[in-house]
Amino acid sequence: MDLRDDPNTIHKLSKKQQEPVTFADGVWVAQKIGAQAYLECSAKSGERVQNVFETAAKVALQLQSP
């Protein structure tokens, strides 16, 4: 999320003929592996971090319910 638009990161990846993972790519992998959710957050800015923990807790509780 943070690094996806960072020019330095993009430059480093392009040297390796790589590019940042897109949101759509993340969703595709999540579906492929059967993940309950796909979320992005920023440890750098704190954006959406709480949402990740809340979603993880909800999913864990749902999986425990009979």
From TrEMBL:
It comes from the Eukaryota. GO terms for molecular function: GTP binding; GTPase activity. Keywords: GTP-binding, Nucleotide-binding. One of its GO terms (biological process) is hemocyte migration. The keyword Ribonucleoprotein does not apply. This is GTP-binding protein rho5.
